[in-house]
Amino acid sequence: MKSEWRFTIVQVLKDDIRRAIVRTAQAVFLERGFEESSMKEIASRAGVSVGNLYRYYPQKEALFEAVTLPAYAMLSALIGEHGAADAQLAGLREPGAMLEQLGTLLGGVLEQCREPLLILLYGSRGTKQEGVKEQLFEQLAAHVLEHMKSARHMTENGKDAAQPAVQFDAGAARPVAVAFLEGYLEIIRLHADPQRIQSLTRQYISLWFMGLRQLL
User: Fold this and answer.
1) Are residues 168 and 79 part of one domain?
2) What residues contact residue 70 under an 8 Å CB cut-off, 6+ apart?
3) Which terminal residue of the chain, N or C, has fewer Cβ atoms less than 10 Å from its own Cβ?
């Protein structure tokens, strides 16, 4: 029994050290970016030896991934699982309620993941994640294109009485995706206050979707 207790205590201490390392690394990567950050500085600021740091994370990029990949996974999943999200939002009768929920959802991602996302977007040079923004653009463009095709299909089959003001082709999907994501991510670049991020995201989503409803 005592050996089990000792194992549990040691494991808790290891987990605490790992979390402290990740928090410190996040601060350093945010200040300096990946290329200009050093494991020596991270170890010093985390209060651990360099050797101990390397036992937890054998390369700087492994530590960078520990800081940033959960945030990327959250945003990527939100974009990638749009089918389930659309179905859930479609169940809301009032457009205002739909936009409020969508704005809260997207604002929550920015609020929870602000610093890791900023590191990915502006401090990932020299890592495998350097092209992450391009990946998000492509992912969202596929989503936009799917909606364009769906809207066109409904119009052609007479299921939507409101004729779109503009007939879009596939070439418009990427510019729309880029414009939306650039503005969305600009919110966290300019603002750090969580309530401000939530408020601006809801406003941003409302403006976008009020405009798109007139076109699609």
Assistant:
1) yes
2) 113, 116
3) N
